[in-house]
Structure prediction request, 442 residues.
Amino acid sequence: MKNLKFIYLSILLVFFTLASCDNNDPVIDVQNPNQSASAKTSMLELQSHFNTDGSLRDGNNPTNDIIFDYCFNFQLPVTLSYNTGVTVTINEFRDLVGVLINMTDDLYIDGIVFPFNVEVYNDNTDSIVVQTINNETDFETLVDSCGFDEDDCICTDEYAPVCVEISANGQGHIVQFTNACEAMCDGFTQADFVDCDNTHPGNEGNGCFEYNFPISLIGRDGVTVVANDAIEFYNILYGAANYYDFVYPFDVTIIDGGAVQTIANVTDFSTLIVACNGNVTCDVVFPAPLGESVQEFCVNDGPFTLADLVVENTTGYNSILWFDGIQSDGANQLPMTSSLANGTTYYAYQAIGDCVEALAVTFYIESCNTSPCWEFVYPATFSTGGGTQVANSDTEVIAILGNNQQAEVMLPFNVTVNGVAQTITTYAEYEAIGFMANWCRS
Prediction:
């Protein structure tokens, strides 16, 4: 196939050679693109999603879908320019990958021809939409919204797939994430999760088999393409302007034992995927949030909900998730507005899945004195009906009050309220401190 050999691209650029190509090949030309910092930033970020051989990089592509793993998808053709001043028009995604993997510190993309279109996910409509980028300001806004510099979303390598349904090209489409944490990093919640149908290319999971290439795929537009190896296969899926299904039948080789198995239809493929990924493996366990395992609250401050429990999130991005038990045991997630029951244990998580640890928090209600605690500053004088008596200690006060039912403290008298000195000069102040109820006597 007559593709431009990007490994020789720097030589071509030095001699400003024009390549004679058919309509599907990248074309080096001399258009006048705009220098673009956003083009450089976006190309460097997209480069990080690929290995040097053009294959997808493990750990950077939890859905094998460019829009969710990266941020957006260029609608081709698009014309880019190098820092040398030479431009190249990209007609197919595999050619864009060729540009990416051959970029170096000395040869890189730093310009683009405006306008161009991109496909992005609109979370308001749960759909893939086309956005026109007219100038550098538009491009900068798009790149900023992608948050390429924000790397605080950390998930484990646990394979426990969850799926969400979106609209693409007017049709429903299931996007599968490696685990719930990855989906939540992209802004989805548990309420968005739907059943995974295990029927789409790219959803191999733990990979107990290998495809026997070539493999044919058919797009939603009815066009069939052929992948001759794994790199072509995943690049087709990753940069697809429309989503693909298999053309049946095709063969796979089971890694354990080397048996060749023919996949005749959707049911065969789904059965294979379920068999491959029946056991969740936990190479790394997602840590529990931090907090006290026993938390007590004053009854007068209630009622209480889960939002009142004090737990520290250590991930920097997820909300605390509460369950009524251990997730792997089939526990139910609880809304933050759930009322707390005395003596009940609740389980806090920072992610959904099997490879996660919980902080178990037991909630108790206790009777608390919420009024201020006060003490006498001695001496204190009491009237006893027929005279007065002076007390110099709590013990003497108790004796005076116990021996004479008519005894009461005489105004003014001095106290400390929660350690703060105060002179009680009126009966209103006397009642405010809750004389006998809140006296912190020794």
Notes: Residues 391 and 399 are 9 Å apart (CA to CA).
